[in-house]
Amino acid sequence: MKFKEVEILSNEEIQNGIYKMVVKEEENIKAGQFYMLKCKNKLLQRPISICEKEGENLIFLYAVVGEGTRDFSIMKKGEKITLTGPLGNGFDLEFNLDKVALVGGGIGIAPMLQVAKEIKNKNGAKQLDLYAGFRDEVYLLDEFKEYVDEINISTNTGSVGHKGFVTDLLKPEEYDLVLCCGPEIMMKKVVEICKEKDTKVFISMEKHMACGVGACLVCTCKTKEGFKRTCKDGPVFDGNYVEF
């Protein structure tokens, strides 16, 4: 983990309220990890998942939901932003499985891109499918096409794909492993249906964080062994280990 100031190479709105920021970063990363980002002269950091790493280009995808992310959205190419990371334990992708499903809800689809990329490059699952759920507008799906076999889409409004929830489409019994990130209510449902079919499932928890290194205890989540720090002990947990 390192604390540094880096240059923003680009920062563009790719969909209504959804931004893609690219910075230069030499550190090695693991799919599912995150960074704490902070604007100059601002006190608080914000956790943002790693979307993708291409050489020394580190890509973040974020939704403008509050003051911190709004500050990020107005930053321009050439400006400096402070990074702390990479943080967290990420996904364990050292496996040899035939069929894997990736499930992303909303901005939770972002870390799934690096996951898909690493699975494709490391162990080449025979079947790797993406299940992506959105409220209305879709984004980032084109970037998955070279890594996954099938893309299954749901929107709450029915504007694209299945009208309803992404969990309506997922059949866990068809997979050896399910990896998931998104709203907690969605991940709870994914874990429930995976339990029913005895399918392994790992989830990436999203919590408010202040430090990102386990010192402040702001981001605790409840597990079968008591409360754990999402930033330090997670953000990736065995779905059967978390108590929603």
UniProtKB/TrEMBL annotation:
GO biological process, one term: 'de novo' UMP biosynthetic process
Cited InterPro entries: Cyt_c3_hydrogenase_gsu (IPR012165), Dihydroorotate_DH_ele_sf (IPR037117), Dihydroorotate_DH_Fe-S-bd (IPR019480), Dihydroorotate_DHASE_ETsu (IPR023455), FAD-bd_FR_type (IPR017927), FNR_nucleotide-bd (IPR039261), OxRdtase_FAD/NAD-bd (IPR001433), PyrK_electron_transfer (IPR050353)
Keyword Disulfide bond attached: no
Residues that, per the record, bind [2Fe-2S] cluster: 211, 216, 219, 231
CC cofactor: [2Fe-2S] cluster; FAD
CDD domains documented for this protein: DHOD_e_trans (cd06218)
Gene Ontology molecular function: any one: metal ion binding
Positions annotated to bind FAD: 46-49, 68-69
Cofactor note text: Binds 1 [2Fe-2S] cluster per subunit.
Domain FAD-binding FR-type: 1-93
Keywords, alphabetical: 2Fe-2S, Electron transport, FAD, Flavoprotein, Iron, Iron-sulfur, Metal-binding, Pyrimidine biosynthesis, Transport
UniProt cross-references to SUPFAM superfamilies, sorted A to Z: Ferredoxin reductase-like, C-terminal NADP-linked domain (SSF52343), Riboflavin synthase domain-like (SSF63380)
Pathway assigned to this chain's UniProt record: Pyrimidine metabolism; UMP biosynthesis via de novo pathway; orotate from (S)-dihydroorotate (NAD(+) route): step 1/1
Domain of life, source organism: Bacteria
One Pfam family in the UniProt entry: DHODB_Fe-S_bind
PANTHER family for the chain: DIHYDROOROTATE DEHYDROGENASE B (NAD(+)), ELECTRON TRANSFER SUBUNIT, DIHYDROOROTATE DEHYDROGENASE B (NAD(+)), ELECTRON TRANSFER SUBUNIT-RELATED
Record family assignment: Belongs to the PyrK family.
The protein's role, per its UniProt record: Responsible for channeling the electrons from the oxidation of dihydroorotate from the FMN redox center in the PyrD type B subunit to the ultimate electron acceptor NAD(+).
Subunit and partners: Heterotetramer of 2 PyrK and 2 PyrD type B subunits.
Protein name: Dihydroorotate dehydrogenase B (NAD(+)), electron transfer subunit
Species classification: Bacteria, Bacillati, Bacillota, Clostridia, Eubacteriales
